[in-house]
């Protein structure tokens, strides 16, 4: 099924085949994302960026992707400066924006906002993160990073580390790993574990899921260590936070027993979870991961904007 | 001993029978009796013997037929309930309450950060993702809901 003119709100909106096609296309986009080759499939097309909460890398990588494809952007980068501040509903703002461009990329602090935007717009809507909800393009670039390192997404042993309860990237990624048949190892403080309903859903999909609170044991025999930020505001007692944050810090000692090919990933920004000494090791791929946001978003925009109207 | 009817028959209206014992007052809340005609009699029987359920509650309302939304709300809290439409003292229609695949405007999403709980021109919407027991998933924020009494809109 073609992605032309479709909304992309949740990673669940994409089939395994569609994800594979996007990853293949993203690989081909790398030299275009680097600027060593040039293509302009979005020439004369405008993408409306509706960013209702602060975001640096997501917005900039989307804008870079549009421009590398020869398109241009109109951007709401600060909700405070938009008419939402005057009380305009998201629904009306999106109806209006859908007249200004061929597609809308939305980031919003409320869960479900992207789904509402998709209903308000007659142009395709791409979700760039809604509250603690979905962030499908982050998952796609996470998968692209793993695939670039291992040439497969099947049979990998992936440790998800950190805040697995509230971290929005983790739930979508776990879903995608289950789709591709990789093993999932959960390492987190007890209070920030993956919610039971998510674990049940993954197991129902046939995924092998295990819990390993000991970071050293989890890292041994694993292929991917996916680190997320543990947010201070999730703890009522600051000393609890420091204890937990300290026990999950990735440094040379943690990686001592790792496989030589283990990759360390992080959606960034990091806040001390990964020691800078890891940056110079072959394990560190998080800056590569941040770069891959551009070719992945190029691949998606190119696939979606091939059609002009929603459902077209 | 004189045996009388605990609830008198009604000429026109609706009888909601086989309500799970103890939930009659919640059914009344869904019906919103304040919105009825002042001369509509509402009869409530709580803890009535039932062959099927052991104990049940019954609600009878004169001069009222339930909207599909109210039927959906009743189906969520007491799925075994039956609804009879009475016209001229006769049962015109008797049916069980059935949940549709999609439930619109009946429940508030329990996720306070869901876009449907913001001042937007949008109604709450849930998909029925499991039927026994009922589990709903918000069509917007994907929050799962398994208990409904406290979230009726």
Strand fraction of chain A equals 5-15%
Gap between N and C termini of chain A: 12 Å
Oligomerization state: heterodimer
The radius of gyration of chain B is: 17 Å
Mean pLDDT across residues of chain A = 91
Main structural class of chain B: mainly beta
CATH architecture assignment of the largest domain in chain B? 2-Layer Sandwich
Average per-residue pLDDT of chain B, rounded, comes to 90
What is the number of helical segments of chain A per DSSP (H or I, 4+ residues)? 11
Query: Helix and strand succession of chain A?
Result: HEHEHEHEHEHEHEHEHHEH
Classification by helices and strands of chain A: alpha/beta
CATH homologous superfamily of the largest domain in chain A?
A: Aspartate/ornithine carbamoyltransferase
Count the helices of chain B. How many?
A: 2
Q: Provide the domain count of chain A.
A: 2
Secondary structure layout plus pairing:
The complex is a heterodimer of chains A (312) and B (153).
Chain A: H1 16-34, E1 46-51, H2 57-68, E2 72-76, H3 90-97, E3 103-108, H4 113-120, E4 125-130, H5 136-150, E5 157-161, H6 168-180, E6 183-187, H7 196-204, E7 209-211, H8 215-219, E8 224-227, H9 238-247, H10 252-255, E9 263-265, H11 286-304
Parallel strand pairs in A: 1-2, 1-3, 3-4, 5-6, 5-8, 6-7, 8-9
Chain B: E1 13-20, H1 24-31, E2 42-50, E3 54-62, H2 68-77, E4 82-87, E5 90-96, E6 102-104, E7 125-131, E8 134-138, E9 144-145
Helix pairs in contact in B: 1-2
């Amino acid at each position: 099924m073609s992605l032309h003119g479709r909304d992309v709100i949740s990673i669940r909106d994409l089939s395994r085949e569609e994800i594979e096609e996007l990853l293949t296309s993203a690989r081909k986009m790398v030299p275009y994302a680097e600027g060593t080759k040039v293509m302009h499939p979005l020439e004369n097309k405008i993408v409306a960026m509706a960013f209702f909460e602060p975001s640096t890398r997501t917005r900039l990588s989307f804008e870079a992707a549009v421009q590398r494809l020869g398109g241009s952007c109109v951007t709401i980068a600060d909700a405070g400066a938009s008419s939402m501040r005057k009380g305009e509903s998201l629904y009306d703002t999106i109806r209006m924006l859908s007249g200004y461009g061929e597609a809308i990329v939305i980031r919003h602090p409320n869960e479900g906002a992207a789904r509402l935007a998709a209903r308000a717009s007659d142009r395709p809507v791409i979700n760039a993160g809604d509250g603690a909800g979905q962030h499908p393009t982050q998952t796609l670039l996470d998968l692209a990073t793993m695939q670039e390192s291992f040439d497969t997404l099947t049979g990998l042993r992936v440790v998800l580390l950190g805040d697995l309860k509230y971290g929005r990237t983790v739930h979508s990624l776990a879903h995608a790993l289950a789709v591709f048949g990789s093993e999932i190892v959960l390492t987190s403080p007890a209070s920030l574990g993956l919610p039971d309903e998510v674990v049940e859903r993954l197991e129902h999909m046939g995924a092998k899921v295990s819990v390993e609170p000991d970071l050293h044991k989890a890292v041994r025999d694993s292929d991917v260590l996916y680190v997320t930020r543990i947010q201070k505001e999730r703890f009522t007692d600051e000393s609890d936070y420091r204890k937990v944050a300290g026990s999950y810090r990735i440094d040379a000692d943690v990686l001592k027993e790792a496989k030589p090919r283990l990759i360390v990933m992080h959606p960034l920004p990091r806040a001390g979870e990964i020691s800078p000494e890891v940056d110079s090791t072959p394990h560190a791929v998080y800056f590569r991961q941040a770069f891959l946001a551009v070719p992945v978003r190029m691949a998606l925009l190119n696939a979606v904007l091939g059609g002009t109207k929603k459902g077209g | 001993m004189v045996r009388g009817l605990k609830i008198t028959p009604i000429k026109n209206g609706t009888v909601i029978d086989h309500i799970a014992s103890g939930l009659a007052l919640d059914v009344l809340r869904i019906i919103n009796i304040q919105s009825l005609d002042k001369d509509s009699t509402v009869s409530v029987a709580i803890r009535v013997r039932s062959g099927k359920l052991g104990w049940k509650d019954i609600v009878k309302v004169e001069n009222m037929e339930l909207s599909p939304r109210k039927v959906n709300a009743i189906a969520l809290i007491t799925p075994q309930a039956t609804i009879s439409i009475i016209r001229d003292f006769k049962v015109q229609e008797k049916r069980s309450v059935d949940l549709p695949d999609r439930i619109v405007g009946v429940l508030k999403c329990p996720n306070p950060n869901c876009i449907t709980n913001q001042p937007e021109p949008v109604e709450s919407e849930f998909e029925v993702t499991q039927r026994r027991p009922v589990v709903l998933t918000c069509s917007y924020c994907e929050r799962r809901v398994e208990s409904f009494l406290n979230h009726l809109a």
